[in-house]
Each structure stands twice: as C-alpha cells, then as structure tokens.
Amino acid sequence: MKLNKKKGAITVKPLAKFIDQTLLKPDATQAQVDTVLAEAKKYQFASVCINPYWVPRAAAALAGSGVNVCTVIGFPLGANTTFVKVAEANHALDEGAVEIDMVLNIGELCFGHDDQVKADIQAVVDATHAKGGLVKVIIEACLLSDEQKVRACELSEAAGADFVKTSTGFAQGGATVHDVVLMKQAVGTRLGVKAAGGIHTYAEAKALIDAGADRLGASAGVAILKEAAQ
C-alpha cells in the first residue's frame, strides 16, 4: 500500500485506512466503546478492534459505514484450547465481526511444537474463511527471539492466515520497527503485517508504515490523524 504524500506527510484519509482503532481495555465501558465507534465512522478507520463482548454493538453501529468490525480471539495469552478459539471465532463472526485477531500458542512455539502451532492457527483460519472473514495472527514478538518470530510468520502463512501481527499490547513490549522489518521480510507481499502496541504519535506510525506495516493497531488513532494533518 502506497502512501499519498502532502508536504512530506501522510495525508489523513489514506493514513486512516492503515489504522485499526483499538479499545481492548478490560474496564472499557459502553460509553467508551460508543465513542470509539463514533470516531471510527467519522475518520473512516480500517476497522474498530474491540473485545468479543462488544461485537454485536459494533456491528450495529458500523453497518454500512465502510469500517470493519475486528475482534480478538484467544486473547491475550494464546493458551486457550483450539476448540475454544474456533468457537470464539465462529460466535464473533456470526455476531458481525469480519476480522479476527488471534493469538497463537506462544508456549508451543517456544518449545518447538510447530505442528501444534500451525494446526491451532489453521483451525481458526478455516472457520473464519468459511464465513468470509480474515485472520491476523498475533505472534507476541516481545516474548520471542528473531528466529522464533520468523518461524511464527512462516507457520502463520502455511496455515493460511491473512496477516501477522506484532503484539497484543498486554505483554512487556509493543510494535518495533525491527520486528516489522523482520516480519515483512518473512512474509513478503503474501501476507499483511500489522504493528500494534505502543503506537501513540504520527512519527511512530509513519516509521512503522515505512518499515512495511500494512495495518496499525492503535488506541490513539484520532490523535495520530490530527498530528499528521498539521
């Protein structure tokens, strides 16, 4: 995805389509969710990423807006059983989600059980694709070595995922330029790369996009757009 430039900056409309406006706090209230949904319609973000409980409300609010409903599965640890992840995904898709951000099984990846990691991802991918959705696989890069990050990307691709994603935002680190470059090298143009966690400014957003990110997960989407427009 190329950026339209204006005086050296990403213009507001194209930049908005890189952003999944995100609200995943455990104490998020209905009022806060409604604010994020209204912002998403106003600024035309790519999606709103919310916890599964809020999917029906988001789907109703965003119907016909051009903004997708994204939710998280196996979040934030990735240690749910595959059965539970698939059930979560199916339920969210039935309630109006069209993008599923799932956490892979981090412990099994670290231990080298690649077949189990791939099977876990593929089960969610198959269920999601059957209902017309797309899957972003969260690899939680801050917990992995570079070799493990690359392997996570390769397993995600082999399982049929649409994106790989850096982080949940709930571990000790978020998106870095290094990780985005590494992940983009691993998947090329075959999968998208989503950077998430700790993205608060336009400069940070631009650096990650320049590094190869196709999407950004950010709770500061509105502030980023306003800064970009200055």
From TrEMBL:
EC numbers: 4.1.2.4
A Pfam family: DeoC
One Gene Ontology term of the molecular function aspect: deoxyribose-phosphate aldolase activity
Principal localisation: cytoplasm
UniProt superkingdom: Bacteria
Cross-referenced InterPro entries: Aldolase_TIM (IPR013785), DeoC (IPR011343), DeoC/FbaB/LacD_aldolase (IPR002915), DeoC_typeI (IPR028581)
GN (gene name): deoC
Subcellular location: Cytoplasm
Functional note: Catalyzes a reversible aldol reaction between acetaldehyde and D-glyceraldehyde 3-phosphate to generate 2-deoxy-D-ribose 5-phosphate.
Assigned protein family: Belongs to the DeoC/FbaB aldolase family. DeoC type 1 subfamily.
Protein name: Deoxyribose-phosphate aldolase
Alphabetical list of NCBIfam families matching this protein: deoC (TIGR00126)
Active-site residues, as the UniProt record annotates them: 101, 165, 194
Pathway(s) of this molecule: Carbohydrate degradation; 2-deoxy-D-ribose 1-phosphate degradation; D-glyceraldehyde 3-phosphate and acetaldehyde from 2-deoxy-alpha-D-ribose 1-phosphate: step 2/2
Catalytic activity: 2-deoxy-D-ribose 5-phosphate = D-glyceraldehyde 3-phosphate + acetaldehyde
Record's keyword terms, sorted: Cytoplasm, Lyase, Schiff base
